[in-house]
Amino acid sequence: MIFKRLVLAYLLVAGGCLTVAQASGQSNSGDAYRQRFVGAWKLISVETIKANGEVIYPFYGKKPEGLLAYDASGWMTVQIVSDPRPSVPKTDSREGFMAAPPGEKLTAVEGYYAYYGTWTADAGNQTVIHHIVQSLYPGERGEDGTRHVVFEGNRLILTAKTHEMGEEHQRKLVWERVSPDTRN
Q1: Rounded CA gap, 149 and 143, in Å?
Q2: Is the model's pLDDT at 22 over the cut of 80?
Q3: Residue 12 falls within a domain, yes or no?
Q4: Number of folded domains in the chain?
Q5: Is 60 inside a domain boundary?
């Protein structure tokens, strides 16, 4: 996998205009599927679905905020702020944040999640894979997160299997496309 990424990076730099889809051998129909992701998406909801079907909100609350972006060159990023939003520390600088009491920093970190990396879409399996380069959680660096994909109108629904709280769950995130005239 590392070799494939290095070759891809080389081809992108050397070739200039070669896309991730072309380098990975995706077909034109795969390109159309991939193009559906490109843009910015506003978070609508995050649900954790237990094995018995019960929906719970253990990490992000019922009304989290967030932004997911996929670009055409193959990069992606996601940021999520929990509900309720952290209100401490009350600073507008990294220096102020670092000087804040440990409990306030912990509150801020527990209410926030972010990572970035590259992405691959698979039309045949109706999935998108996030190849995580950097994350708030250091253990995620270098991981590949596979999400099942459903497009419903201007919504993108991503579902992933997860093992947490001692059992298997599904995490369902609903995103809505952000249009240029609705940036709030």
Answers
A1: 19
A2: no
A3: no
A4: 1
A5: yes
